Amino acid sequence: MAKKRERTRLEKLMHSWGKASIDERRQFIGWLGLDGPQPTPAPIATGRYLTPEVIARIEQILAIRRIGIAEVMAELGFDRRDPCLLRAMARRASLRLVVIAALENWLRDHAGLALP
What we know:
Blueprint: H1 9-19, H2 22-32, E1 45-46, E2 49-50, H3 52-65, H4 69-76, H5 84-90, H6 97-109
Antiparallel strand pairs: 1-2
């Protein structure tokens, strides 16, 4: 009869995590030192105006994905013919707050993209 494979330490930790109570999980996270304040991401806009860093990041994502502003607007849930993002990037025009909020989520979704 073949001997049963012994679980790895990682597998044992994952199994124990699943059985742990919420309080035990919090204690463990505290023991790891991960319960401290997490860094907050930099704002993408000052007031209603995109920061230069964000404009550069959007342009980088556009280049990587080979898409245009119209596709971004459609992904954000707005009319692809709406020129507000193009104006905000090209002429530093202001944006509606709802567009800024949607753009924050879009940037978070594309955070892992980088030029090769």
